[in-house]
Amino acid sequence: MNIVGVSISTGASFTLFTSISNRKFTPSIRNHANLSLWLSSRLFFLPTAKSASLCQMPPLSISTTAIDDEDVKKNPIIEKSRDSYVRRRKSKPSSDQDEIFSNLLRLAVRNQDVGFGSQIHAAILKIHDDDGGEGSMVLFNKVIAMYIKLRRVSYARKVFDQMKFPDVVTYTSLISAYAKCGKEREVVDLFLTMRLADIDFNEFTIVAVLTSCIRNFNLKLGMQVHVLAIKIYNTLDIYISNALMGLYGRLQRSHDVVRLFDKMPNRDVSSWNAVIFGTLKEFRYEQAFTFFHDMRMAGFSGDKFTLSTLLMASEEGLYMEEGEMIHCHSIKIGLELDLSVGNALMSHYTKFSHHVNDIVNIFERMPSKDVISCTSMVWGFMEFGKVKSALEVFNQMKEINSVSYNALMAGFCQNGEYLQALELFRKVIEEGMELSDFTLGTAIHACALASDVERSKQIHGFVTKVGFGSNARIKSSLVDMYSKCNRMKEARMIFDTGGVFNGESCLIGSTSLICGYARNGYFEEALYFFTKLLKHERFGVSIDEILVSTVLGVCGDLGFVDIGKQLHVYVLKLKNHPFDVTLWNSLFSMYSKSGSSDDAAKVYDSMPKHDVTTWNTLIAGHVLHRQGDEAVITWKKMIETSNVTPDHISFLLVLLASKYTSYDPVDICHGLFTSMSSYGIKPHEEHYAAIVSVFGHWNNFNEAEDLIKNMPSEAGALVWRSLLDTCRLNSNFMLGKQAMNHILESTPTDPSTYILISNLYSALGRWHRSEKTRQEMRDKGLRKVPSQSWIFHQNKIHSFHARDQTHLESKDIYSALNILILECMKVGYAPDRSYVLHEVEEFQKENFLFYHSAKLAVTYGHLITTMKGSRAVRVMKNVRLCGDCHSFMKFFSVVTARKIFFRDTSGFHWFIDGRCSCEVQ
Ligand SMILES: [Zn+2]
Ligand SMILES: [Zn+2]
After folding, report:
1. pLDDT bucket at 130, cuts 50 / 70 / 90
2. Where, if anywhere, are coiled coils annotated (predicted)?
3. Is residue 235 part of a domain?
4. What ligand is nearest to the CA atom of residue 883?
5. Greatest CA span in the chain, whole angstroms?
6. pLDDT in tens, 455-465
């Protein structure tokens, strides 16, 4: 007989038999008997596919094909040898026998074959009594280990329950298994039973119980175990210390981690990993790298866990260079393409790299990829605006989970592909994927961004149907969605339904609602709602810095400096709210945006510290005043003298500011752009859009075109829109048309795109196309934000639309304006009819022009504000002031001898003695 020569189709089984051959397994009658025993236990008649391969063994000298008990009985030699074997086994355990059992148990694990494992278990039971002897105990412990490895903890438990004398290994295996599946109660019960049975635990038992504490965040039990361990062992074992550090690290008690770490006489890689991980939990990223340095000095190079943890630290703490250093180190020690390190590297480069190829390079070289790697690649492509490539990767994914769907959906939203995001959402539902509040939140966000009223209603209905209607996070997303769709009634209705809508979600909801009111021009509602919150502090939300900051933001955006001042006082009165830098920044920004430079300066001087937002607000102030040179000086001061690191907003602002410099800003823009990388900032589309707008402003369209051509990913709608806008202002129709075609390529869903396109057609004199574009916009239910001007007087907002006659003092305003127009015409004002929509009949044009919202507002402001102390008339407008109104204001300042402070979306205008500050610059 030739056992070694048996042809077995699975590699795993072959290993088993070769291992027997390596041990010089000499065929003998006893071995025949052993084999026959397996056969008689029907080991080779297993139900599963993997073990079925064993049935393909060629006939042996002892038939292997159809041996059953009958055959065995018929074979006197086998029968005899079995009987003698069983007798012998009972008296004296055979180590060879046990060795084979152990090997077969291992085989079951390797093949992940529970059925096969159970058969071996049955065979062991047939010949092994649990006699409490060492041999049987070892074997039954192995059976338990087998079941645990095959994730059949309940089977393992049954074996355990039937064992008469379980030992420390038995207990520890089971405790460890329960710990890993989070069954804390079973862990504690078993540990106590073990102690009552007077079985001494070992360090592995302690580690197993600690694992359970880590999984269940049970600090109390963990600390008890810690004390027990110290009592038993004077010096803690390295494994116990590591587990304890893991526990304290998970529970963000990094001082305990470090204390344990410092006391360790010996450390291994896991000890270093635990202490590094502990720092991460408390956001002390720099320390993580210090520990890594010490670790290397101690002679450890780290493992995949060390590297992926550090890469996470570099990503979260914005330590780009350190991350790159870890990348080099991973190449050096051959772990660059390890699954977890590769995944972490992809995530790192998605955040910091300027080229999508850095991510693709790692992804393509990774020998094995999992769902995380592929999802990271999808996200990487989306971050670089490569929607098509992201889709390709997604479509080729063998395994897709809800995280992958969420990444794709969020990516679509990020790239303005709202409709694709919603289409994908439909697919998620059809395929019955798990719906999380993140998935639903993203779909709602897509509707909000698309401002698609119809779909918004549908998704609201769906969310309610699937039972997420009362989920607080979803509700605040719905409030945001409806407020972005200008459906404030619905938004308010959802908010008012109360229920579980409280705490943080209520805060988000309130913020969305207040911003929604403000954005859609319902200023009074915005402030009324806030005052109501202030008075009652109801809805379960206490007014905190964030909400006050938000409302200060609204005041700043709308130029309500008076309300802002009241809030300033309110904030100063708050005792329980620490006056933190965010609040200081909001105040500073509110004064600065409202054009109250003196108050802004006072706040700036009294601030305890200036952070990046403070500096950004300073630069933003210069942008509003169109002070390009001053903005660049402030920028230089920030990077040269302050300890503040600029962020992507700082770059965006200084780029925008360079539009107003007294010198050609091409060089400075290029310089700023290249320096972004040294701060670990990847230029976003908005940065490109800003530079395009600067180049366009300076009539340098060649540079703008070059920049667009050399973008790392295709220019998106934002960049083209920026180009189209400057083309319109500088009458570059040819390039404008190109930009328009690019915008039209991607489905236009934003009303502002239609307005821009319509305006360009108007400028080209193609009225028909212009009107058609506007009609198309109306057909799609898209609404343009109506142009509106407002002034704030005695705690009341007076807001005007064009030809608005709803104001109580409308009659007086119109007659005053008519007189003022005549006065202005006397000193040279000539109405510019090109600013009137073409569809208006010629004789009506002036009427339309004269009663623009800005003119109505400034007239009312003149009527109600006193001339004493020559207080300026302050008017705000939600869109750019039209050319005719701009010209009118100059004459207005002459005939009324008043200063007019005007803020529109392009910044501040001070009209004094017939001149505007925007033209002086
Ligand atoms: Zn106007
Ligand atoms: Zn101006």
Report:
1. low
2. none
3. no
4. 1
5. 131
6. 888 888 888 88
